[in-house]
C-alpha cells in the first residue's frame, strides 16, 4: 500500500505560516496535481512529504507507516520516495547510465540491463546511456531524471514542476511520456504545478492551493465545471463574468434568462455574480438570446476567441472553431449552450 495521507500540516517561515493545517489524501497508484500560483507553498508541501523539511505540526503517513509527526521523523532515504526537481538535477560529470544507476546499491550499479529497462520505460533508446546530460534536450533530461527517480521502484513519486522550463510542444510530449511511465509502475504520484491545463490533463485528482490552504480538492472535471467561487473559476480558465439578478424562475443577466448552478442555491438572492466559460457560448440564434457586434477576433489555430459587444454594451467572449470565425463588425446572436454558474456577491 502506498497511499499518501497528509493531516494538519502547518509550516511557517518566521511568524507567517506558509501552509495552514493542510489535509490531503492521494490513493495508491493515482496522481494528484497540487495547483496554485507561484510562491503559494506547493513545493514546501512536497519537501515535507519527502522529508527535507520538518513541519511545525501535522502528520504524513505513507501506506500504514507514519513518516512524519507523532514524534517520528523518518529520514528521506528511508521513505521510499522518488523526487524529480524542476531542473532535473542530473550530475553533469556522469553519463546517463551513471545518473540513473546512482541511487542503486553499489553491487547493482553496473547492471546495464536495469538501466536499459528504465530508459525504455521513459521512452528513450538504450544508446542514450552513454551520453552526457549536456548532450540531451530538456525533455530528454527530464525523462532521465524520472528514470533515476524510479530506479529503486519507489512507492511514491514527487514531481516538482518538472515541465515548466520546456517549450510548449516539448512539454506536451514529455508529459505524455512521464505519465505513461508512471502508469506502468503504478506509483502514487504528486505533481506540483502552476499550469492549469497541465494539472487538468495529467492528474486523477486536483488540489487547488490558495493562501496556504486547499480551497478545493476533486477530479479535474469537478474543479473545472464546479469551482467553489468566482476567484477559483477565473484561475482555472477563461470566464465571462457578468452581473445577474435573481428572479422566481432563474437569473436575468445580459445573456437573457438563465438557470445557474450553485453550491448554495438557497443563498442566492438579489444581485449575483454569473460565470460562463467561452466554450459554453455559441454564435447561433435561440429564443430570447441577445445580439451584438463582433469587435475583435483572436485566432489560435484550432479555435478562436470572438469578442462581441452586445446591444446593451456588455462585452462577452465566445470560443469558436478556428475555421468558422465571423468578420469584425458582423452582427451575431449569442446563445448559452453549457453550464452557467452563480455565486453570491461579496
Descriptive report:
- With 346 residues, the chain is an alpha+beta fold.
- The chain folds into 2 domains: 4-225, P-loop containing nucleotide triphosphate hydrolases (Rossmann fold), CATH 3.40.50.300; 238-344, Nucleic acid-binding proteins (OB fold (Dihydrolipoamide Acetyltransferase, E2P)).
- The chain has helices at 42-50, 96-101, 112-121, 138-150, 168-185, 196-202, 220-225, 230-236; strands at residues 4-13, 16-26, 31-35, 57-62, 65-69, 72-73, 81-84, 156-160, 188-193, 205-210, 213-218, 240-247, 250-253, 256-258, 271-276, 281-282, 291-299, 303-310, 315-321, 331-333, 335-336, 341-344.
- Strand 10 (205-210) and strand 11 (213-218) form a beta hairpin.
- Helix 3 crosses helix 4 and helix 4 (138-150) packs parallel to helix 5.
- The protein is globular.
- It starts with a strand and ends with a strand.
- The mean pLDDT is 91.
- Its EC number is 7.6.2.9.
- One of its GO terms (cellular component) is ATP-binding cassette (ABC) transporter complex.
- GO terms for molecular function: ABC-type ferric iron transporter activity; ABC-type quaternary ammonium compound transporting activity; ATP binding; ATP hydrolysis activity.
Amino acid at each position: 500500500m502506498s497511499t499518501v495521507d497528509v493531516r494538519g500540516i502547518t509550516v511557517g517561515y518566521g511568524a507567517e505560516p506558509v501552509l495552514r493545517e493542510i489535509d490531503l489524501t492521494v490513493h495508491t497508484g493515482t496522481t494528484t496535481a497540487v495547483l496554485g500560483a507561484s510562491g503559494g507553498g506547493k513545493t514546501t508541501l512536497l519537501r515535507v512529504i519527502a522529508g527535507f523539511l520538518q513541519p511545525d505540526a501535522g502528520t504524513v503517513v505513507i501506506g500504514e507507516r507514519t513518516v512524519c509527526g507523532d514524534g517520528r521523523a523518518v529520514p528521506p532515504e528511508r521513505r521510499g520516495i522518488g523526487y524529480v526537481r524542476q531542473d532535473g538535477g542530473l550530475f553533469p560529470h556522469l553519463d546517463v547510465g551513471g545518473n540513473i544507476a546512482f541511487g542503486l546499491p553499489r553491487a547493482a550499479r553496473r547492471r546495464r540491463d536495469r538501466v536499459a529497462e528504465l530508459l525504455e520505460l521513459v521512452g528513450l533508446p538504450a544508446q542514450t546511456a552513454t551520453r552526457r546530460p549536456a548532450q540531451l534536450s530538456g525533455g530528454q533530461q527530464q525523462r532521465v531524471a524520472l528514470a533515476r527517480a524510479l530506479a529503486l521502484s519507489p512507492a511514491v513519486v514527487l514531481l516538482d514542476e518538472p515541465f515548466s522550463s520546456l517549450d510548449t510542444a516539448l512539454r506536451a510530449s514529455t508529459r505524455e511520456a512521464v505519465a505513461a511511465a508512471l502508469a506502468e509502475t503504478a506509483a502514487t504520484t504528486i505533481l506540483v504545478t502552476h499550469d492549469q491545463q497541465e494539472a487538468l490533463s495529467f492528474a486523477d485528482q486536483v488540489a487547488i492551493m490558495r493562501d496556504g490552504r486547499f480551497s478545493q480538492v476533486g477530479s479535474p472535471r469537478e474543479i473545472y465545471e464546479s469551482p467553489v467561487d468566482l476567484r477559483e473559476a477565473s484561475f482555472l480558465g477563461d470566464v465571462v463574468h457578468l452581473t445577474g439578478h435573481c428572479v422566481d424562475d432563474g437569473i436575468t443577466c445580459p445573456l437573457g434568462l438563465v438557470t445557474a448552478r450553485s453550491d448554495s442555491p438557497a443563498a442566492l438572492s438579489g444581485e449575483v455574480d454569473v460565470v460562463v466559460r467561452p466554450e459554453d457560448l455559441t454564435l447561433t440564434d435561440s429564443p430570447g438570446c441577445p445580439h451584438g457586434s463582433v469587435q475583435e477576433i483572436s485566432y489560435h489555430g484550432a479555435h478562436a476567441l470572438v469578442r462581441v459587444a452586445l446591444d446593451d454594451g456588455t462585452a462577452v467572449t465566445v470560443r469558436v472553431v478556428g475555421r468558422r470565425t465571423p468578420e469584425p463588425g458582423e452582427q451575431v446572436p449569442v446563445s448559452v449552450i453549457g453550464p452557467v454558474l452563480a455565486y453570491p456577491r461579496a
